[in-house]
Design a protein that fits this description.
165 residues, single chain
Length: 165
């Protein structure tokens, strides 16, 4: 029995080994998922600025986005989040760093980016592959969008109540 405890202790990784494994995993997540999303967001914003599309689309969607306390240009963070959560958050951060949105407006965007983030990928991987009833596909697409809208409204209300908006 004493030999089994010694063998178990030898097989169990040390705290340092566990830390290193976690750090390595975190590094790869950052390098493989977050960094490309941030680069994509930056390139998207620069492209939209250079072509003038950001101002045009921003003016067009300004009345809708104003419901959430956001400028029209903030829609690009939501569009990017549609494809990847990290891209949506990175786009919001880029818009903030360029002075297009305020910190409070970025705060309003982040829960929506997480709530509806990666919707396209998840929809294909889960709903289509699981062969769900096709009559429910639009409902399954709309629920995260409604949740994101509710999250933005609630975040705006909380920020207003705190005097931060």
């Amino acid at each position: 029995m004493a030999e089994t405890n010694i063998e178990l202790q030898k097989m169990k990784p040390s705290i340092v080994e566990e830390f290193m494994a976690g750090a390595k995993k975190g590094f790869y997540i950052g390098a493989e998922m977050i960094a490309p999303a941030m680069v994509l967001a930056y390139v998207l914003i620069v492209f939209l600025e250079i072509t003038g599309l950001m101002n045009s689309v921003g003016k067009l969607l300004s009345p809708v986005m104003a419901l959430f306390g956001l400028p029209g240009e903030a829609v690009f963070a939501l569009v990017a989040a549609f494809f990847a959560k990290a891209a949506g958050c990175a786009t919001a951060a880029t818009l903030y760093s360029k002075g297009v949105i305020t910190a409070a407006q970025a705060t309003i965007l982040f829960p929506a980016c997480i709530t509806m983030g990666t919707l396209i990928g998840h929809f294909v991987r889960i709903v289509i592959v699981a062969n769900t009833n096709k009559m429910r596909h639009s409902l399954l697409l709309c629920v995260p969008l409604v949740d994101a809208a509710i999250a933005m409204v609630l975040t705006r209300l909380i920020l207003n109540a705190m005097g931060l908006n």
